[in-house]
Each structure stands twice: as structure tokens, then as C-alpha cells.
Amino acid sequence: MSIVFVLVCVAIAIGILIYIGMWTVYLDMVTDHCDTYAWGTFAQFEREYAKRQWEQQADFPQSHFSVWMNLHHNSEIHADIIKFDDVGMLLNPMDFLLFKLWEKNHMYKKPSGERPGHWEKE
User: H or E element: which one contains 26?
Assistant: First the structure.
């Protein structure tokens, strides 16, 4: 057996373990921070997300919040917590992967024309 094959297998195994760790932290965050939670799918996530008007806060630029009657956030995507109408959404590992890819493409984009920051010279 080639050493390259063994290294590739080890790298894949490490990647899978890291991903499973991310998924279990996500499950823990939702169940700890939401009084009510239920299993959903990525398709359900997309439908629920499209139903709401979202805002971003200066303190949390990579999170989305939906305010209900200016009282509290009854729907949010923040710190790996997905919540719609005060119900946390749990996703299976494949749907969570689709969510993370969606999140990277939709929530972390900088506005067009914004240039990356530079260190200031003292």
C-alpha cells in the first residue's frame, strides 16, 4: 500500500471527524438555546428563510435576524442556531452541509465594491 494512499485516507478521516464535531456542536447550540426545536430539511430551511424579512446588526454582521413587532428576534440565524418563529431547526448531517454551503454564499459575502481591509501603518 502506498504511503500517499494512507495519507489521503487519514486526511479524509480527519476531515469527517472535524465535520461530525461541527455538526454535534450545532445540535448542542440549538437544543441549549431554543426552548422548542424540531427536525427539518434544507428545503424547509430555504422556504422558511424566504418567508421573512431579515436584518443584520452591526455587532453581528454575519448573522440574520427577523424582528417581530420590534420586540424580540423570533427568527434568527446566529452562531449556528437556526430558529424560525421561536422554534429551533435541527438538520441532519447532509442538510447541515448544504446549510453551511448556503451560509458561506449568502451570509459572508461583502457588499460589492468593498475592498478588503489593510493594516494601518503606525
Answer: helix 3-33
- Neighbouring CB atoms inside 10 A of 54's CB total 15
* Degrees to nearest 5, angle at CA 54 with 50 and 55: 165
Residue 33, in any domain of the structure: yes
The grid coordinates of residue 52 equal 421573512
Q: Does residue 18 fall inside a structural domain?
A: yes
3-state secondary structure of 71: coil
CA–CA gap between residue 30 and residue 45 (Å, rounded): 14
Q: Which residue is listed with cell 442538510? A: 95
Residue 122 belongs to some domain of the structure: no
Q: Per-residue pLDDT for 118 more than 50?
A: no
Crossing angle for the helix pair 93-106 and 3-33, to the nearest 10 degrees: 80
| Average pLDDT along the chain | 85
In the block, cell 426545536 appears at 37
* Residue 34 belongs to domain spanning: 3-106
Domain count, the chain: 1
